Amino acid sequence: MRGIGVLFALAFGLVFGAAGVFVLFETSVPTYRDWQAMKTGRPASAQLLDVSRARNRTGASYRYEIGGVSYQTVTSP
Predict the structure, then answer these.
(1) Structure pTM?
(2) Domain ranges in the chain?
């Protein structure tokens, strides 16, 4: 009987350990990679054009320039 309990505890631990490793690789590792990639980016100045708001959301439109190319971004609430 003791051997069955040990096997059950081992299986239980392996399942939760595997779930923890899965969550680590699905959340922390991509975030770390994005952070590393963003460190090589150059800052850009932006001009805020408009701010709009709804009940629980806020949107903004702004313009910025990178490498001589102008971009305009609009996010709606």
Answers:
(1) 0.44
(2) 1-41, 43-77
